[in-house]
Design brief:
The structure is a single chain. With 164 residues, the protein is an alpha/beta fold. It is built from five helices and six strands; from the N terminus they run βαβααβαβββα. The strands form two sheets. A four-stranded mixed beta sheet has the order 3-6-5-4, with helices on one face. Strands 1-2 form a two-stranded parallel sheet. It is globular and about 50 Å long.
């Protein structure tokens, strides 16, 4: 018995690997879904629920995503803040790498000079909504700390799902 598969994006890092996955699915008569799931993390769910409380805020027209995911993960999170219903009218972005002085890295458990990658994006939507995106490779520790802080300060009942 074969099971259907849910894969996080991207389906693979090489075209040949993607082709092999698709061929195996066809051969075994299973379905594959490739889905961006980053905006479903608990911290993002809390922020999305907060932004969507129409009685308090009305429609959200501008959102800023700082450190919550890189590349398409971050853009997906940003779109979840504003809603997935508006098509983008204009998108601009840039990626830069900067040298850093030698420092201790808890992630690598080493000390040394490193590069920092920063990604910046601006998305303007047809209805006037605007999203600003920023991510830095040095900020991964900050994002993990924010998850812990949210768990400590948000009441437990706020973690449930809410309909909007």
């Amino acid at each position: 018995m074969a099971l259907h598969v849910l894969l996080e994006t991207p389906i693979a890092h090489k075209l040949s690997e993607a082709d092999a996955i698709i061929e195996a699915a066809w051969r075994n008569h299973v379905k594959i879904e490739i889905a961006e799931q980053f905006h479903r993390r608990p911290l993002e769910q809390i922020q999305t629920q907060t932004h969507r409380v129409q009685a308090l805020f009305g429609r959200v027209y501008t959102a800023f995503n700082d450190f919550a995911g890189h590349g398409y993960h971050g853009v997906s999170v940003l779109r979840s803040y504003l809603g997935f219903d508006a098509p983008p009218a204009q998108v601009s972005g840039s990626v830069h790498s900067y040298p850093l002085a030698a420092h201790w890295s808890r992630l690598g458990n080493t000390r040394g000079a490193r590069d920092e990658t920063q990604e910046h994006g601006l998305i303007e939507f047809e209805d006037g909504r605007v999203g600003v995106f920023h991510w830095t490779s040095v900020g991964l520790r900050f994002a993990a700390a924010m998850v812990g802080a949210a768990a400590a300060f948000w009441p437990k009942k706020a973690w449930g799902s809410a309909s909007v």
